[in-house]
Amino acid sequence: MIGIVLPTYNEAGNLPTLIEGLRELDAEIIVVDDGSSDGTEAIAREAGATVLQRGAKLGLASAYVYGMGIAIERGFDPIIQMDADLSHRPCDVPAMVAAAERADLVLGSRWIDGGGIENWETSREMLSKFGSGYARTLLGLPYSDLTGGFKAWRAQTLADIELPSIRSEGYAFQVETTFRAHRRNAQVTEVPIVFADRLSGTSKMSWGIAIEAAWVVPMLRWRGT
Prior knowledge:
Blueprint: E1 2-8, H1 15-22, E2 27-33, H2 40-46, E3 50-53, H3 60-73, E4 79-81, H4 93-99, E5 105-109, E6 116-118, H5 122-139, E7 151-153, H6 155-160, H7 170-183, E8 188-192, E9 194-196, H8 207-223
């Protein structure tokens, strides 16, 4: 059975639409909520999702680590990680699940043929492309989109990368998990997705997270993690 991990913080405006869009899949939705004050938890439970309530805003990466660890324990395979703000479209999930039948890790890619973005400022597009190019060059990775958070994992591959030992956040977390899988000879493929900037709520991304990635990536190369 498919497991879908959705970290949330005040996503009441987006979650009903997202869960409805995922309903056609034979999937268990795991919502990792960081103490939302807008009713996100109640909406998720009412929609039939499993809710893991952490009670405070502890960070996106740690939410993924926690939720994906639970998904592994419960035997879900593949395991999808995606944002809850509708920037990752439910309609792209079936193609990622299909690709996971022949790959260990599927990256939802904005920067390959068929992929794209919507509602982005030019500066943000340039930052994302630069981040992927920077990581690709320093780490010797052949993938086009290294900073995206829309992925489909085979459960064993996810277990093999030792999630609890990861401490990076944001872009760096996305790069590090893919790098670890690549270093363990996982079969990694990319499928095109369209990434639409959120229309409801506030973005969790910050320049601080982008700056963190700039120094974490060279450390990954040095450690060879």
